[in-house]
Write a structure and sequence with these properties.
- With about 700 residues, this protein is of the alpha/beta class.
- Helices cover about 55% and strands about 10% of the residues.
- It has 26 helices and 12 strands.
- The chain has helices spanning about 1-20, 25-30, 40-60, 65, 90-95, 130-140, 180-195, 200-215, 235-245, 265-280, 295-300, 320-325, 335-345, 350-360, 370-375, 385-390, 405-425, 425-440, 455-475, 480-490, 495-525, 535-560, 565-580, 600-615, 650-655, 665-694, and strands at about 70-85, 100-115, 120-125, 150-155, 155-160, 165-170, 250-255, 285-290, 300-305, 310-315, 620, 645-650.
- The strands form 3 sheets. It has a 6-stranded mixed beta sheet with strand order 6-7-8-3-9-10, sandwiched between helices. It has a 4-stranded antiparallel beta sheet with strand order 2-1-4-5, with helices on both faces. Strands 11-12 form a two-stranded antiparallel sheet.
- Helix 19 packs antiparallel against helix 24 and helix 22 runs parallel beside helix 26.
- The chain is elongated and about 110 Å long.
Length: about 700
């Protein structure tokens, strides 16, 4: 009786959600009057009515409602090349066998076909590792062309770069910037991807509607978070992922495990929302789902079953139980068909029989094209749409909805908001303050005397190099950590690569300069460096330029390698080599290695810092008194022909061998390194992004 009552509640709720009016049937209220479930029913009906109202509010301007997209694919095969390495020991043990090293081709999916119509939901079900996500990646053109065979079309046309903007892909892994709130995340997506004819106010209104639709309003101002920073829950992250694609009004929505991590009621609500979007806005929805509940299973229109990369079934969802019964596997009436299907496909013997049965059924149609034509409404005579719409290519006149300047502005704002919470976190600021205090205590009021020259030089070198390591450790990770997000947004044609790259430069510029500035200003005056404001400004500028040049090298290593661990190792080795060739630790490099100093940007910044402090008439150092120098060390005042009362700063630079080129030449070279490395980093990132598409 309890199950019957629950079924009645669901039926009443579903009937209300499919209705265009939010009114409640009087008989339904009478049936539940006095019941404990009346409050829950009222809440469900209210949310369903609100959901219908929100979907209808966006239906008028929907692209997919005016230009539906029919997705068809047949003869799909995908294989990858794998390195098969055989150890020398195995070769000896199996000398008579044919074990060989080399590349071997492994088939991932084979002879896959199907179609998805506007207004319908197609579910792809199968055990883990059967190729479901691979097929979804192929349909979204996220794999490239290598190893791919077969035909995939939208309205009978091959997928192009412009048509990919109308295909939304919700990945299984929810990819977001962790320090942005839910509302900020969706707002930036809307401003980048919604039509440029829409005002900013209308775009933000659509964000509000989408959040309300997916019940995200309560967590709108909560950051997304990650495994380190606490943010929204797993279920809310999944809904944000779906919301970020729904609000852009795509014609086709691909979803990989949209209900994973959700409870049964929330999973049902998500699938109900997707179904209503499909029906009311003529969207084509294809989802990979592992183990749906019976109610979720009933919401599907078509079904594809896969096992070990092969087809097991494709057709109407309502016909799968009868099809399995014809193969000798009858599902019990009270059993969830989805659970029964997975139970069959996890049995190796039954799975192989079902694969063979479907292969035998389609033996006269090896690519599956005839089956696609059978189930696709695009080629059916009873389709109410005219041929112009049915065969119209899904494309746009524009490559991007936002202009270049709009992209630059939006991405700069987003990058700054994301990175400021990292760069200027309490930990980083505390680190800078502690380091500043420590350096002040060590180098407090260094006297202008011969005995303290090395201390003065050491403070300048340390102040330069310490921020090189700090900046390098952050900048080298910039592109590798953004790679997944960059690939996702570039696939959806959200923005140009150049606008993304320039926005990184602009947004991170003040952040990378803040901590070195916070450190340099108090340390300079407290350590009693040259008391001249002009020299102080020059010293600060060189320190900041050194940080920016270090950042340029970090960008280059990160954009070229695009691997976190390898990028860190390469950048640290480069930094250590540059530091050793910088002229502080080793003044005279061995023969054959002298060329290293010309490629050490540390040497140019180090020389500039010394020139700002020692190449000045004010830089005069008192000669050492008897007993102040270590035993056996001569004073610089006594090494010349004429005894000196003080040591001029320029003679110190000459003694260090850092007067080879004038200060302006050092400055030009340092600026050159800074600019050239950034240009190379961009082209390296561009080349790697193209390689990922292939």
């Amino acid at each position: 009786m309890e199950q019957i009552k629950n079924d009645q509640i669901v039926t009443a709720t579903d009937s209300c959600s499919s209705s265009m009016s939010p009114t409640i049937n009087e008989k339904t209220l009478t049936k539940f009057e006095g019941s404990d479930d009346i409050n829950d029913l009222s809440i469900q009906i209210e949310r369903s009515a609100k959901r219908t109202e929100l979907i209808q509010s966006t239906e008028k301007g929907s692209t997919s409602a005016k230009n539906p997209a029919y997705v068809e694919w047949y003869g799909i095969n995908y294989s990858i090349s794998e390195d098969h390495n055989v150890s020398w020991w195995n070769k000896i043990k199996n000398s008579d066998s044919k074990l060989e090293s080399g590349k071997h081709v492994r088939k991932i999916i084979e002879n896959i076909h199907g179609c998805a119509n506007p207004g319908e939901v197609l579910a792809i079900i199968g055990p883990s590792g059967c190729g479901k996500t691979t097929l979804l990646n192929l349909l979204g053109d996220h794999v490239g062309s290598k190893g791919v065979q077969g035909t995939i079309t939208l309205n009978g046309h091959k997928i192009t770069k412009n048509s990919k903007r109308f295909v939304a892909y919700c990945t299984q892994d929810d990819i977001f910037f962790s320090h942005l709130t839910v509302k900020e995340t969706l707002s930036y997506t809307a401003r980048l991807r919604l039509p440029r004819e829409m005002s900013r106010r209308d775009k933000l209104k659509q964000v509000e509607n989408t959040m309300a639709l997916l019940n995200l309003t309560k967590c709108a101002n909560t950051i997304i978070g990650d495994h380190i920073t606490r943010g929204v829950s797993g279920g809310e992250r999944k809904r944000v992922n779906i919301a970020s694609e729904l609000l852009t009004d795509p014609s086709v929505i691909l979803l990989d495990e949209p209900t994973s991590g959700l409870d049964s009621s929330l999973a049902l609500e998500i699938t109900t929302i997707l179904k209503e979007f499909a029906v009311k806005q003529k969207k084509t929805i294809i989802m990979v789902i592992h183990q749906p509940s019976s109610q979720v299973f009933e919401s599907f229109d078509k079904l594809m079953l896969m096992a070990d990369g092969h087809m097991v079934y494709f057709g109407e969802r309502a016909g799968v139980v009868d099809y399995l019964a014809d193969q000798g596997y009858k599902c019990h009436p009270n059993f969830n068909p989805a659970d029964y299907i997975l139970e069959l496909l996890n049995d190796n013997t039954i799975k192989q029989k079902l694969i063979n049965a479907y292969t035998h059924k389609t033996r006269d149609d090896p690519t599956g094209k005839q089956i696609v034509e059978k189930y696709s409404r695009r080629t059916r005579a009873d389709n109410q749409l005219n041929n112009t719409i049915l065969n119209a290519p899904v494309t746009s006149e524009r490559r991007w909805e936002a202009t270049f300047l709009q992209q630059l502005s939006i991405l700069t704002e987003r990058t700054f908001k994301q990175n400021i919470k990292i760069s200027l976190s309490k930990v980083n600021i505390s680190h800078t303050i502690v380091l500043t205090i420590y350096c002040i205590l060590i180098w407090l009021q260094i006297p202008f005397s011969e005995t303290s020259i090395n201390d003065r030089i050491g403070s300048m070198f340390f102040g330069s190099v310490v921020w090189s390591f700090y900046v390098l450790s952050e900048s080298v990770l910039s592109f590798p950590l953004d790679l997944v997000m960059l690939s996702k947004e570039r696939q959806s044609r959200s923005y140009r690569l150049l606008s993304y790259y320039l926005s990184k430069q602009i947004a991170e510029l003040p952040l990378v300069l803040f901590n070195p500035t916070l450190f340099t200003i108090p340390v300079y005056w407290a350590s009693n460096l040259l008391p001249d404001f002009g020299r102080f400004v020059a010293y600060l500028v060189v320190t900041l330029l050194n940080a920016l040049t270090t950042q340029s090298f970090g960008y280059l290593f990160g954009a070229t390698i695009l691997n976190v661990q390898k990028s860190i190792i390469v950048s640290l080795v480069f930094m250590l080599v540059s530091m050793l060739a910088g002229g502080f630790y080793v003044r005279h490099l061995p023969t054959g290695l002298t060329w290293l100093k010309y490629f050490s940007y540390v040497r140019y910044s180090y020389s500039l810092l010394l020139q700002t402090q020692f190449d000045s008439p004010k830089a005069q150092f008192r000669c050492a008194r008897p007993g102040e120098l270590p035993a056996g060390e001569l004073s610089m005042c006594d090494t010349g022909d004429v005894p000196m009362s003080s040591i001029p700063g320029i003679s110190i630079i000459e003694n260090l061998g850092l007067n080879e080129i004038p200060w302006y030449a050092n400055l030009i070279v340092l600026l050159g390194f800074c600019i050239v490395m950034r240009v190379l980093a961009y082209y390296s990132l561009r080349k790697n992004s193209r390689r990922n598409k292939e």
